[in-house]
Amino acid sequence: MSSSKRLTLYYMLLILIICICAAFVLKNSAYLNFGESEALSKLGSQGKEVTAIQEALRDRGLFSGEATGYYGTKTQTAVRRFQQQKGLAVDGIAGPQTLGALGISIGSVPQATESNINLLARIISAEARGEPYAGQVAVGAVVLNRVEHPSFPDTIEGVIYQNGAFSAINDGQFWEPIEASCYNAARDALNGWDPSGGAIYYYNPAKTSNAFITSRPVITQIGDHLFCS
After folding, report:
1. pLDDT by residue (tens digit) across 196-210?
2. Which of 80, 147, 177, 210 has its CA 20 to 30 A from that of 73?
3. What is the dihedral of CA 55, 57, 63, 69, to 10 degrees?
4. Are 139 and 122 in contact (CB under 8 A)?
5. Where are the alpha helices (DSSP H) in 129-166?
6. pLDDT tens track for 62-97
């Protein structure tokens, strides 16, 4: 085979490989993160960010009912109305501009990443090992409620490691093996379930006489823990 024919064959193979790669990328583009909108809340999303969106819309009279943390058609319609009011692109997706207009900072709501699940499960296990499952989820929810509260650090790590916040950090229980149910409890809390009713404190009345914590208004009791505002 002449050198010119080999060169022609080489270019034909190169073009074929490029075409195959391009087809693969196009076919799988739905699974690739090419823009911020892919990672933001939209129809079918769920979690703490969706809960925050629903609460913000409810405060503006655009959303009624419980903030479930699930982005259904009712939430989508409310987002569209809000976008229309603010002169934003009306697509029903809570992208950067919509979240900003709602007063929700992107990334301020912890997501159910593996590292967040593991860290939250560890503090749940240390603080609520042996408690009812709803009580375990509630302890996780308290951590997340503190993340969103202006009086506490704005990350899970910051809340958990805040000086004096959790006795389990000081007495070593935080480093004990994690109870299996606490991983699911962490996932449920990160996905928006809050059995505590929005609590930012909890305590076992049989184990504390701290004047500050016992003075907090009680929201609910689950197992041995009182959850407070």
Report:
1. 999 999 999 998 888
2. 147
3. -40
4. no
5. 133-148, 156-160
6. 999 888 888 999 999 999 999 999 999 999 999 888
User: How far apart (Å, rounded) are the C-alpha atoms in residues 63 and 140?
Assistant: 26
Q: In three state form, how does the secondary structure of 179-215 look?
A: CCHHHHHHHHHHCCCCCCCCCCEEECCCCCCCHHHHC
How many Cα atoms occupy the beta-carbon half-sphere of 16 within 13 Å? 6
Residue type at 208 in one-letter notation: T
Closest CA to 141 of 194, 182, 219: 194
Give the largest Cα separation in the chain, rounded.
Answer: 93
Q: Answer whether 0.85 is exceeded by the pTM.
A: no
Paired strand residues for 51: none
Partnered with residue 218 across adjacent β-strands are 228
Kindly give the pairing relationship between strand 218-222 and strand 201-203. Answer: unpaired
Q: Which residues contact 143 (CB under 8 A, 6 or more apart)?
A: 120, 123, 156, 159, 160, 189
Predicted confidence at residue 7, as pLDDT, reads: 54
